[in-house]
Structures are given as structure tokens and as C-alpha cells.
From TrEMBL:
Listed cofactors: Mg(2+); a divalent metal cation
Classification via PANTHER family: 4-HYDROXY-4-METHYL-2-OXOGLUTARATE ALDOLASE 3-RELATED (PTHR33254)
SUPFAM superfamilies named among the record's database cross-references: RraA-like (SSF89562)
Record bears the keyword Transmembrane: no
Family label: Belongs to the class II aldolase/RraA-like family.
GO annotation (BP), single: methylation
Function: Catalyzes the aldol cleavage of 4-hydroxy-4-methyl-2-oxoglutarate (HMG) into 2 molecules of pyruvate. Also contains a secondary oxaloacetate (OAA) decarboxylase activity due to the common pyruvate enolate transition state formed following C-C bond cleavage in the retro-aldol and decarboxylation reactions.
Keyword set, alphabetical order: Lyase, Magnesium, Metal-binding, Methyltransferase, Transferase
Name of the protein: 4-hydroxy-4-methyl-2-oxoglutarate aldolase
Position of the signal peptide: none
Length: 173
């Protein structure tokens, strides 16, 4: 990729000239004023480097809220989905991810699995997740939206700025 346009939708952007600083650069500059996520998420979207303000969903084996939130305007935000690390059901597939792209979301971080990995890898969307499972989620809509969620010792507060890349995830406290 040769553009430095941050709104570019090129898939699989890993170009070091991208305008966003790397997470390592951010850590060097800001250190422990940021939080860094220890958990080793897999990069499963067509964008590896992404950033934006945090939005959140907390749910477990039920993705109705994920679908609803990603069908609403994202305005460049990153949705952090705390699925409690359950690997039982996929919390996002290609249709929900395509809707996230259409609605202007920068990325989705899922403490749980996705499905349709081949399709996700072709979308201009950041996706970090624990893995994949073909089993569909429940659709009851149980869970919470835009509450602080904690994954290991990192708290993701709605509105906090988050940066993700090949090295990991850093987020404002
Ligand atoms: O509908 C679901 O539960 C997930 C899915 O397959 C999709 O997003 O395409």
C-alpha cells in the first residue's frame, strides 16, 4: 500500500508508513500510562493495524447484541466483545463483519471465537479473536452494551482510545 490516507479501505494493510504509530512506539512514548494486553489474540481480519475509540459488548455464547451494535454507525470505533473466553460459539461471522465494514467500524476484538475465517480475512476490518468455531451463537440478546469490560488485567472503557497491530493491543486507562 502506498497511500497514507487513514480512511483507506485497502485490505491487509501492514505498511509501516501508515499514519498510526505502532503499539511498540506508543508504549515507548507513554509506557504504563497505557495498558497492554497480555493475551495473544489471533489476527483474523483483512486489517492488522487499526485504532479508534472503544465501544463494548459483554455477552456469552449469544451474539445478538454484537450484531445490533455492528449494524449501527461505528464512526471509526473498535468494538471490544467480552465473551468470557468461551470457545463454545462464534460471536461474529462474515455477515456481521460485512455489516461492521458498511457501518464504518475500524475493528472488532473478541474474547471468544469467530467463524467464516476466509471471508473475514478478505474484509477491510481489524479482527482479533481467540480462534474460531463453526457453531452459531444464541440470539436471545442477553448481555450489556458500552459497559467497562475487563480481559485479564486490562479494562476497556467506552471512549478510551485503542491501538492494535501485529504486536498486540494497547489502550488508554
Ligand atoms: O449470524 C451469526 O451468528 C454469525 C454469522 O454467521 C455471520 O455473521 O455471518
Amino acid at each position: 500500500m502506498t497511500t497514507t490516507d487513514p480512511s483507506s479501505t485497502d485490505a491487509a494493510s501492514t505498511d509501516p508508513t501508515d499514519v498510526d504509530p505502532t503499539t511498540a512506539d506508543l508504549w515507548d512514548e507513554h509506557g504504563e500510562t497505557l495498558q497492554s494486553v497480555d493475551r495473544q489474540f489471533l489476527d483474523l481480519g483483512g486489517r492488522v493495524r487499526f485504532s479508534g475509540p472503544v465501544r463494548t459488548v459483554r455477552c456469552r455464547n449469544d451474539n445478538a447484541l454484537v450484531k445490533a451494535v455492528l449494524a449501527s454507525p461505528g464512526d471509526g470505533a473498535v468494538l471490544v466483545v467480552d465473551g468470557g473466553a468461551s470457545m463454545r460459539t462464534a460471536l461474529m461471522g462474515d455477515l456481521i463483519a460485512a455489516s461492521a465494514v458498511e457501518n464504518g467500524w475500524a475493528g472488532v476484538i473478541i474474547n471468544g471465537p469467530v467463524r467464516d475465517r476466509t471471508a473475514l480475512a478478505a474484509l477491510p476490518l481489524g479482527v482479533k479473536a481467540l480462534g474460531s468455531n463453526p457453531r452459531k451463537s444464541g440470539k436471545a440478546g442477553t448481555g450489556e452494551v458500552d459497559v467497562p469490560v475487563t480481559i485479564d488485567d486490562v479494562t476497556f472503557r467506552p471512549g478510551a482510545k485503542l491501538w492494535a497491530d501485529e504486536d498486540g493491543i494497547v489502550v488508554e486507562r
